[in-house]
Amino acid sequence: MIWQCRQQLWDLSHRPLVMGILNVTPDSFSDGGEYEDPSRAVERAMTMVHEGADIVDIGGESTRPGAPEVSQQEEMKRVIPVLERLVSAGCSALSVDTRKVEVARAAVECGASIINDVEASRSDLAMWQLVAESGVGYVAMHMQGQPRTMQHAPNYSEVVSEVYAFFTERLDAMHHLGIKKQQVVLDVGIGFGKDLSHNLELLRSIECFGKLERPIMLGVSRKSLFKALLGVEEPSRRLPAGLATALWAVNQGVKIIRTHDVAETVQALAMWEALQGKNQL
Known about the structure:
- With 281 residues, the protein is an alpha/beta fold.
- It has a single domain, classed as TIM Barrel (Alpha-Beta Barrel).
- 39% of the residues lie in helices and 16% in strands.
- The chain is built from nine helices and ten strands.
- The chain has an eight-stranded parallel barrel, surrounded by six helices. A two-stranded antiparallel sheet has the order 1-2.
- Helix 3 (101-110) links the parallel strand 5 and strand 6 (114-117).
- Helix 1 (38-51) packs across helix 2, helix 2 (72-88) runs parallel beside helix 3 (101-110) and helix 3 (101-110) runs parallel beside helix 4.
């Protein structure tokens, strides 16, 4: 299975990819404030690449439950200086996590090769026009509601079939706007407008989304579902549960793992590959 991100063609039939999370925000749930300074953010990104991250995903607006919306100008102020420095340093696989088309446009002009869109462009088709024209990779995530309110009593009749139907409709709409199928990756949006039971249902059924014939990305790193399920309060102490979930997911066909903990995830996946007979340690 191929994922096209501008000139980069990822062959995802060989091994899962690791996407490292770089939040340049003051208020992200796990690492808010740690990488607001562009120099520290660039240093962290280079560390993740050294640890084995295939992609670095830069986010300038927190999408944690209850997070306030950030202005377009503020988001660009946070993201673009970091992106410019990383491009100058030779980093080519750079993603920007944004819902705003003007932020995405500025990022693409700077050299980003992927747009990670938690809204899957429900409200602004200009985002898709940008993706079609530029040829960047595009991650379409499912989210019920908005970050500010998404965890206020999320409700589904049948969460797996509803998320599946959402992706089917989005893929068809993207195709009609000129986005190539091979540009698109899907993310079921664990924790985005879902309660614990919804998250577990999606994880247990994640293999079925492979029928959509697009790579699936999973982001469960340090998430609150582990607090709800296992009672682990501190986000940084949720690594074992996150790794267990990631390995479960790749065994079910997930192709990209999005994580704060790159070195640990890379090591776990290398061991998984060795046990699958896919490499030699």
